[in-house]
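Hi there, hope your week has been kind to you so far. It would help a lot if you went through both lines with me. No rush at all, and the record is pasted right below:

***
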Amino acid sequence: MDLHDRTRVSEVMSTPLETIGGDEPIREAARRMSERDISALVVTAGSGCIVTQSDIIAAVAEGRDTEETLVSDVMTEDVETVTPDLLMEEVAAMMTMYGVKHLPVVDDDYVGMISSTDVTAQLS
């Protein structure tokens, strides 16, 4: 297959990028994810941070208060990122290697999000 015929991140990523501040309660993060039917948000406080449904579920399972617990308390830090020109096969390999389900897309700044669901839908 010709490399130019293969799907790139820019064709599949979710945009516009959904964000949340680190000082917001996790209940607000859960509300935004539910409202937008997404499973991760980029955290604007800090560099390379996201909060996912899994982060929030773990906090609730631990008995943490959803109004008192802040996004910064549960967010995933130092998240790997991808560029819009990366091939979907490369993204699948990265997700497998790093054991993650979400990768922010960066092109000088955050421009979107790619999820394992996006990858599966595209490559199947």
Notes: The chain has a mean pLDDT of 91.
